[in-house]
Amino acid sequence: MGLAYNVYLDSSRIYACKICKTHLANHDDIISRNFRGQHGKAFLFDNVVNTTSSEAGERNMTTGRHVVRDIACRQCKETVGWKYDKAYEASEKYKEGKFILEAELLCTVT
Prior knowledge:
Elements: E1 14-17, E2 23-26, E3 30-37, E4 40-45, E5 51-53, E6 57-61, E7 64-73, E8 79-87, E9 99-102, E10 106-109
Antiparallel strand pairs: 1-2, 1-10, 3-4, 4-9, 5-7, 6-7, 7-8, 8-9
């Protein structure tokens, strides 16, 4: 395995890990701000960078049962949210392949 290089985003508003300031997502990639996580307010993103993911597992969430995996900052290993792998409800299928980042675990950088 080779070296892992961080991706640096170029945007007017970037969300980063609150602990180490590693770039995680571009503000323009937000699909929805109407989500709640373990630490409160959360955002649904189409794409994130500089993360690692855990093994997938089924979880009962407020919107039904989903297969998700936790995602962590690649730099400091802090868990910052999760990725939806599968939604069982037809109305929740739009979440598949998308990412949740929790606002409390983020900071903005410019």
